[in-house]
Specification:
Elements lengths: L2 H12 L3 E5 L5 E4 L2 E4 H15 L12 H12 L2 H15 L5 H7 L5 E4 L5 H9 L4 E4 L8 H6 L10 E4 L14 H12 L7 H8 L3 E5 L11 H6 L8 E4 L7 H11 L1 E4 L3 H19 L7 E6 L5 H10 L1 H7 L1 E4 L10 H11 L2 E6 L1 H5 L1 H16 L4 E6 L30 H24 L1
Helix pairs in contact: 2-3, 5-6, 5-12, 15-17
Length: 445
């Protein structure tokens, strides 16, 4: 890739707009000098069992888990026996993530979709002490859209989401192993039976860079899968596939390039990710001075609403990092500092002022008559934007900020009235995320 392409990729990662799809080939194990995907080693073990029991196999297909699992079910007539063997194999064999997964784990991808059933990426995250969330498709369990989406929390680089598309070894009955299972999965995909939750699919609706690692694009199901994931006819953001020495027919390459705008690169996945990691670490250090807080945000609130301020600020963490926002509030005043003077100084520097509105806020002369007056003056001068956030029910309709067109939450239901307070904060942050580019643009002007 050119330096410009690398920089565009790094920019998308920094903005949380780069998603990753891992094929079975990304999880590999080396035995006696031979490196294969875990799924191939598993197929070989299952094939050995079938041979011992005198079941004939096509030798050229014994590395294909789909084929061997189908034969296994046909011969032993027991899905539970197959699930037990798969669970045992991964428990005994899949103990250490390879270099590719370790490097991926150290990069801030917010969402990773994995088609291998192992927990190796999770082990890599645990090794780094990184928080993460997981969810998986279940072959056996039919779920409503609401149930499927309940598994999913907002992904971020600091707390990524891993979605195991073909089930998880931690739930063996969920696994997509045989040809029949794969057909059932594709049927669920086509019929929108929540095989991929909407909370995952919505991440692909925006123009985000997508990376594919470890896929065998000759497999028939992959012609359908990207279409259901991307959910749009025109792909505008890059779809990058470091394919290395993985063989790919000319027909398959042309199909994916034309249909999904996939760019197949000659680099091996590990070499590509290591170079990406190197550039990420270098650019992180170089960018720090450049992204120093274009937005200085300040909370105005009564101490009775301290808990709401703390909760909202936590939800803002990812946006603060992505947009270089600094937040300040009265609790950050050091002992010995003159409180009123410090607040006046911060108000003079703030260009985004968040009002946490409640009855206590409106009843406070210091907040409503002094600090809010100063904030409104900066707003009239075009030096700051004021955003009222309703945290508790109160009579605010005749307040000086009541005519603002940007009162949150949007339906003017105070945060305290929401059954799920985290959902309320998420709503507020998403609305602020829409507004921030406008604010930055005006500040630059």
């Amino acid at each position: 890739m050119t330096n410009e392409q690398w920089n565009e990729l790094l920019f998308s990662i920094r903005k949380g707009k780069c998603l990753l799809l891992l094929g079975a080939g990304a999880s590999t194990l080396t035995k006696n000098g031979t490196t294969r995907p875990y799924t191939e080693w598993l197929a070989i073990e299952l094939a050995d069992q079938l041979r011992r029991d005198q079941h004939p196999l096509e030798e050229s297909e014994t590395g294909s888990l789909l084929y061997v699992a189908t034969e296994y079910l046909s011969f032993y007539k027991s899905a539970i026996k197959l699930q037990q063997e798969v669970e045992r194999f991964y428990r005994e064999q899949a103990k250490q993530p390879n270099a590719l997964l370790k490097t991926i784990a150290d990069l801030p991808f917010p969402l990773i979709i994995n088609t291998a059933p192992d927990t190796l990426l999770e082990k890599a995250w645990l090794g780094l002490g990184k928080d993460y969330r997981t969810a998986h498709y279940s072959l056996q369990k039919e779920r409503s859209k609401e149930e499927a989406d309940l598994q999913i929390e907002d992904p971020s680089g600091d707390c990524p989401m891993l979605y195991n598309l073909f089930g998880s070894v931690g739930d063996p009955a969920s696994l997509v192993l045989s040809e029949r299972d794969r057909l059932k999965f594709i049927e669920d995909i086509i019929q929108h039976n929540n095989a991929i939750p909407n909370a995952i699919l919505k991440e692909f609706k925006e123009d985000k860079v997508v990376l594919f690692f470890g896929f065998d694009f000759e497999h028939w199901h992959l012609r359908i899968l990207p279409k259901k994931i991307f959910q749009k006819e025109e792909i505008s953001a890059p779809v990058i596939v470091p394919n290395g020495s993985q063989p790919l027919s000319r027909g398959a390459m042309v199909f994916y390039e034309k249909q999904y705008k996939m760019e197949f690169l000659p680099e091996e996945p590990l070499a590509f990710v290591q170079e990406l990691s190197r550039r990420w670490e270098t650019q992180k250090d170089e960018d720090l001075p450049e992204i120093a807080a274009p937005i200085r945000a300040m909370y105005l609130y009564d101490r009775a609403d301290e808990a709401y301020k703390t909760m909202l600020d936590k939800h803002l963490s990812v946006l603060k990092r992505a947009e270089g926002i600094q937040t300040w509030d009265e609790s950050m005043i050091s002992a010995g500092e003159e409180v009123d003077e410090r607040i006046r100084q911060q108000l003079d520097q703030a260009n985004l002022i968040l009002l946490l509105v409640s009855a206590d806020f409106l009843a406070s002369d210091k907040l409503y008559e002094e600090q809010l007056r100063q904030a409104l003056q900066r707003n009239r001068e075009g030096k700051a934007y004021i955003i009222p956030i309703l945290v508790r029910a109160c009579t605010w309709e005749n307040a000086v900020f009541a005519k603002s067109k940007f009162i949150l939450p949007r339906k003017q239901n105070p945060v305290a009235s929401w059954e799920d307070k985290d959902a309320a904060c998420r709503h507020i942050v998403m609305e602020l995320e829409k507004y921030i580019p406008h604010l930055v643009e005006n500040l630059q002007v």
